[in-house]
Amino acid sequence: MGTGRGGDREGCGRLGLTGFVIGRRSAENLAEMVIGQSNTALPTGKLPINHLRALLADLPKHDPRLVIGPQVGEDAAVIDAGDRYLVVTTDPITFATDHIGRYAVHVNANDVSVLGARPLWFFVVLLLPEGSATAELAESIMADVRVACEELGVTVSGGHSEITPGLDRPIVIGQMLGEVAPSRLVRKSRIAVGDQILLTRGIAIEGTAILARERSAQLQGRIDADLLSRASRFLIEPGISVVTAALAAASVGGEVHAMHDPTEGGLATGLFELAAPAGLGLRVVREQIPVFPETAATCEVLALDPLRLIASGALLLAVAPTGTDAVMHAIQDVGVPVTAIGEVRPLNEGLTMIANGSAAPLVPPARDEIARAFESA
After folding, report:
1. Which residue in 250, 239, 245, 261 sits closest to 316, CA to CA?
2. What pTM, to 2 d.p., does this model score?
3. How much is the pLDDT for 41?
4. Domain tally, the chain
5. Between 376 and 136, residue with greater pLDDT
6. Same-domain pairing of 240 and 314
């Protein structure tokens, strides 16, 4: 979801590229702003950043064993369990309707693995629409959950299922737990100026798969049939899991300062979320960002920006300059392509995109491009 579920042991953490620490007074100001806008409908997708900050600013923190809690830019919590850290995340599948069990497993496993942890236990909540739910529907979703968990070596450990009024499609909510040795935890607060920004595979795998499956009627006859056929299989090939690449990178050691999987809001939001916990800026070069031809063709027909399209399946990394080659080799050795697309810069330089030699601010979108595609259909 990218809602930001991180924090720090010492108390309030820095949130976002503005570099300020939220205290009680600023939280009250943000809360007043949210209350003042309570009658305004929010756009589909993630909560706006300021609203999210207000919600997270003054949550209770009773247990000091919470190493990473609610914070913008973090998608998983970390709990000190003694000789190991327990890493926990939860995410729903709301845009896709096809193979949602597979989506649920992989997007949650990704959020665990980017902290250097191995996903181990999965819990699933299955909400089926009243009036149209069938036993076959439930069975097909759980079959996808089973296959995806088998691929990752994850144990399905519990959950909940029900027929729910008010839904027009099934909703799956997943929760993934994993563990990591404290010395191997990869946390974004370690990002430093000069770190190299790496991107695996390309963008936007998940968005391309969803659009090819859910909007095929709009795309047929407007893009090459072979491209559309390949795009419809993106969920499987190249797939939306980053677990193998993330664990390979983490095995190199302390050279990897941060990892993040760009999801809703695409690469633009993912870059913001990568830098947010450390309060730093980034500079990326547009021409170095790999975009799948299937994605480019789909986005061109639907007038969407591929940089702002939901992008599970790619992995962002911030790596110390001295370790860049070793980390890239480790990722390539497990069969995953990786490209250097930019570097970490000081906060005052902000988030910048260089395109055709010109620099411009890279602003996270208010909503994912896929929401716009679904609204205009």
Report:
1. 261
2. 0.84
3. 82
4. 3
5. 136
6. yes
